[in-house]
Automatic annotation (TrEMBL):
<feature type="domain" description="WxxW">
    <location>
        <begin position="45"/>
        <end position="129"/>
    </location>
</feature>
<dbReference type="Pfam" id="PF13330">
    <property type="entry name" value="Mucin2_WxxW"/>
</dbReference>
<keyword id="KW-0325">Glycoprotein</keyword>
<dbReference type="GO" id="GO:0005576">
    <property type="term" value="C:extracellular region"/>
</dbReference>
<dbReference type="InterPro" id="IPR025155">
    <property type="entry name" value="WxxW_domain"/>
</dbReference>
<feature type="signal peptide">
    <location>
        <begin position="1"/>
        <end position="20"/>
    </location>
</feature>
<dbReference type="InterPro" id="IPR039675">
    <property type="entry name" value="CILP1/CILP2"/>
</dbReference>
<keyword id="KW-0732">Signal</keyword>
<keyword id="KW-0964">Secreted</keyword>
<protein>
    <submittedName>
        <fullName>Cartilage intermediate layer protein 1-like isoform X3</fullName>
    </submittedName>
</protein>
<feature type="region of interest" description="Disordered">
    <location>
        <begin position="25"/>
        <end position="48"/>
    </location>
</feature>
């Protein structure tokens, strides 16, 4: 079974087989930053999560930590992630920052040391639960 990765503006989807085509077709409407159709589990987008402010070294929006802090609010196997700068709604992909992690299985991690200005933005993330 082939795994496909779809990356659109601030949005990552992992899918296999025919589900990939369905996600690709829906991706453009789901990627709308302003169209906040948030849902809790099951199915659809979760609410936005921001677990910390950028520490002196990084911004950690790691899925494992988000699950601990928000039990039952994120499905077991999210297939998409969306990230934006908190308070500005700027998609993460438009910030030109490098992310150590940015996937629906791990969440988002931005390290200050990897940025040209040595500082990560404060991000919030949400997950797509099939």
């Amino acid at each position: 079974m082939a795994i496909k990765l779809f990356l659109t503006v601030g949005l990552v989807f992992l899918a296999a087989g025919t589900a990939a085509e369905r996600l690709e077709e829906e991706g453009s409407s789901m990627a709308d930053e302003q169209g906040e159709k948030s849902k809790d589990v099951p199915g659809g987008w979760t609410r936005w999560f921001d677990r910390d402010d950028p520490l002196p070294t990084a911004d950690y929006e790691a899925l494992c930590e988000l699950r601990i802090e928000n039990p039952g609010k994120i499905c077991d196997r999210p297939s998409g992630i969306q990230a934006r700068v908190k308070g500005k709604n700027t998609p993460a992909s438009e910030t030109r920052e490098y992310f150590v992690k940015f996937s629906p299985h791990e969440g988002l991690v931005c390290m200050d040391a990897h940025q040209l200005d040595r500082r990560c933005e404060d991000y919030e993330v949400r997950f797509w639960c099939p």
